[in-house]
Structure formats: C-alpha cells, structure tokens
Amino acid sequence: MKYIPTIGLEIHAELKTRSKMFCGCKNDPEEKSPNVNICPICMAHPGALPAINKEAVKHVVKTGRALGGAIADFTEFDRKNYFYPDIPKGYQISQYKYPIVSEGNLNGIEITRVHLEEDTATSKHDRGEYSLLDFNRAGIPLMELVTEPVIHDAETAVRFAKELQLLLRYLGVSGANMEKGEMRVEANISVSKTDSFGTKVEVKNLNSFKVVEKAIEYEIKRQSEKLERGEKIVQETRGWDEDREETFSQREKESSHDYRYFPDPDLPKLKLSELSEFSAEVLKKEIPEPPWDKRRRLTEILGIKNEAAEIFVTDSRLGNFFDEVAGKLAGRKEAILLASNYITSDITSILKNEDNNIPTVDSFVSLVKMLEEKVVSSRGAKDILAIMCREGGEPNKIAEKGGLLQKSDQSEIILIAKKILGDNEKVVAEFKAGKESALQYLIGQGMRASRGSVNPQMLKKTFLYLLKEN
Ligand code: ADP
Ligand code: MG
Ligand code: ZN
After folding, report:
1. 72 C-alpha to center of ligand 2: Å?
2. Ligand 3 mean position to 48 CA, how many Å?
C-alpha cells in the first residue's frame, strides 16, 4: 500500500519598500558593500526604539485582499526569542497570535495566514576559520505566508509557489526572485497510510522551483522507505544538499513554545479597520487584475491558446503590449489571434537580441491590419517586423521601401478580374442593371479561377473599380 504525502508550505518574501521594517535605513537588496544600510535600531543596540513601516503593512494587506483572505481588525507584533549571530537582539520581531491576514486561497490551496516580520542579517561562512555578518538585510520587511497542509504532490506545491511569485510581482510588493533570496520556500512534508497526519519534516533553504520539487520528492521517498523498514520519522528541520541532491538533518525541530513569543512592548498595536487607507474601497483601486483572472480572460474571452496566454501572464512586458494591441483590435478575434501569434513567436525571438526593441502599439496594429488585408504576405510581415524592432518605423513605409507589398498579386488580381468580366458579360449587365448579388457571383468565379489564392476583399474592390471604369 502506498503512503499518502502531505505538504504545507511556508513562503517568505522580502517586501519592496523604501526603508526597512522598523527603522529609516534604506531597503536595498542590491547593495553590494556590506554594513552600509545600518543604524542602531537594525544593529540591535540596546535602547534603540523601532517604529512600524506603514508601506510594509499595506503590502501585506494588499496581498491578503488579493488572496481573498480576512484582514485582521486588530494586529500586533511579537518577539520571537532565539539566539543566533544574525539576530543580535536575541529575538526577531514577528507576528504570532494576531497576523495581519488569515485564511484566503490561491490555486484552490487554503492559506492559513500571512504575517509580517523582519529579515535577519546575512552570514558568510566561506572565508576561513571565522564567519562574517552583513547587516544590510537585517530588518528588511519580510512577509511570511503559511498554507494549510492540503497539498499532496511536489508539482502542485511548485505551481502554488510560482503563482504566488506572479501575484507578488503583479502587486508590486516584492521582486520575489528566488535565486536572489527575495522569495524563500520551506516545505513541510509528511507521509501516512491513514487519514491522520504523519510526523512532519521541514525542509529549508530551497532556492529555486526545481529544488523545491526535488526536495519534496526526495523526502516523500525517504520517509516512505523509512516507515517501510519499520523506523520512525523524527520531527526535524532539514536542509537541501545541492551536490548530493538530498536532504540532510540540520536540527531537531523546536516547537512554538520554545520561542517564548510575547507582544513587543516597544511597538504600538494596530487597529487596521480604523485606518481608511487600508480599506477595501481604497485598496481595490491599487490591486491590479490578478494573474489567474488574466489567464482566464486571455484564454476564455479572447480565445488565446494556453501556451501563448502563459507567456502573456508571466512576461509583463509582452503581456501589457498584447493587452494594448488587443484593445485597439477590440472584438476582432481573428486579428487578435494573429497579433498573439506574431508576438509570441516572432517578437519573442527578435527580442532575444538585446539591441532590438518592442515596436510601438500603433505600428504593430498597422502591421496586423496589413496582414489581415493580405497587403503583405506572412513572410513579408516577418521581415517588416524585424526592421520595426531593429530600427523602428511604420510598416507600410518599410514595406514600400523594401518592395514587400504584394504588388504582383495586385496586378494578378486585376488580370483575373478582367478575364472573369470578359467571360461573364451577361452577369455584368445584370449587375449594372442593379442586381447586387451578381457581384457575389463574379467574386465566386474569381476565387475559383485563382484557386482561392487571392484576397476576396481585394478582389471585390478590384471588381467594383473595373465595373465603375467601363
Ligand atoms: P509549526 O508549529 O511546527 O511551525 P504549524 O502547525 O505552524 O507547525 O505548521 C507549519 C507548516 O507545516 C504549515 O505550512 C502546515 O501546513 C504544515 N504542516 C503541519 N502539519 C503537517 C503535516 N503533518 N504534514 C505536512 N505539513 C504539515
Ligand atoms: Mg512555523
Ligand atoms: Zn536601520
């Protein structure tokens, strides 16, 4: 009988704010010189007084609203006591009993809470017989999101983390780059044969989506095999060994009472419901369409294929460009699909050369119209687009200059039309006598004669022109 895995995630994200969580120091994760964005507060000098960063609180409230969570009426900060060189106060300011957000849902996975805390300093252990500490990161606002233990496979866990990353970027609250440590995933994993949970193991320091997936799969296997041998799972914190591709024990897990949480007496308590700038009405205007709504709008309403939609949902530059183009082509499904194809195939590959630029919305829309009217062939459009991205310019000018307009086709259409008119004198006479449907017949003949290779719109125009002429 197989073991059923259970996974709950704890995801940290560094928030984008001007200053740190409890002091005026610059919040700059890109700063390379160590210990420059520091002050007595984030260095934990005795007696220094922290103050709450409102922008950080707002970021968490916004995230909570986007996740459909409940925003706390009352919230406060607590001290989480533990000793480690990267946390010289001897405690981390976090939230325990009254997190800013509780409940909510992402990808159908229930969220337990989202709270706010401060990041620690970074330690470097690679210099020799000593470690170095950099306090630039100490006190950067850190959001922690905790899910319920309702995930049952690695793939779903990764999909959740990716969607959260997207949301945080849409909201502009975090860069959420995992490689840079702006977003860090911890996975709690247990396996069980029964309805009740098995003992969970927490795996920390998972710094890419691939590693999250591998670590979860590794743990499921390790724990199942251990139980199969009749051994017990130890509740512990494990790390991920990148070279050996396996988890390893770091320490036996402490439980929350070990931290001796208590409300931080230096910080005011917050009545969020009394702050009008955090109200649902105010924040609604600041919360953009979330990725899951965008995905649905693109596929279900605009009829864009899943893979193309995913490109637009994840790449904000292409996604916004497409939205503007689709806006100008309002309601014209064929043209919108055409635009989508040219953006996801041609423009993406053209932009791989960093000297190239995305064209202006108007010039690209013109090109789509030229394609629709078959003024240019698809081969010609690709060449025109490459020039538009390299040098800029209007597609019709580029086409004229480069001889990319389908001129030969136009003269060919005239030849076809003249022949059809010559062969159908009776129908021509009927048309001239006012029988509108005669024109449709002539177009049908022309289409047949050209074996469908001419644009019916252009053929119609040509017929009308020739019929008026004689
Ligand atoms: P702790 O007090 O050890 O931090 P929590 O109950 O706060 O434990 O849960 C922390 C995380 O562990 C949450 O994401 C939760 O979903 C997950 N979790 C809890 N129990 C289990 C379990 N038996 N198996 C897998 N994950 C679990
Ligand atoms: Mg925990
Ligand atoms: Zn500071």
Report:
1. 20
2. 10
Contact partners, residue 131, CB within 8 Å, separation at least 6: 85, 123, 124, 125
In this structure, how many other beta carbons lie within 10 angstroms of the beta carbon of residue 65?
A: 20
Long-range pairs of 171-175 with CB within 8 A, sequence gap ≥ 24: 171/59, 171/62, 171/63, 171/66, 171/287, 171/288, 172/16, 173/13, 173/15, 173/16, 173/59, 173/60, 173/62, 173/63, 173/143, 174/13, 174/14, 174/15, 174/16, 174/59, 174/143, 175/14, 175/16, 175/29
Reported as a single tens digit per residue, the pLDDT across 60-103 is 999 999 999 999 999 999 999 999 999 989 999 999 999 999 99
Chain position carrying tokens 């840079």: 180
In the block, which residue shows the tokens 């449907």?
437
> Mutation test of ligand 1: which of 200, 202, 236, 257 has the most ligand atoms closer than 8 Å to its C-beta?
200
Which of 188, 196, 257 maximizes ligand 1 atoms within 8 Å of its Cβ, making it the mutation to test the pocket? 188
pTM over 0.90: no
DSSP-based three-state secondary structure for 188: strand
470 falls in which pLDDT band (50, 70, 90)? low
Q: How far does the centroid of ligand 1 lie from the alpha carbon of residue 266, in Å?
A: 30
Using a 6 Å CB cutoff, which residues line ligand 1?
6-10, 146-149, 188-190, 197, 200, 255-256
Count other C-beta atoms under 10 Å from residue 111's C-beta. Answer: 25
Chain mean position to CA 257: 37
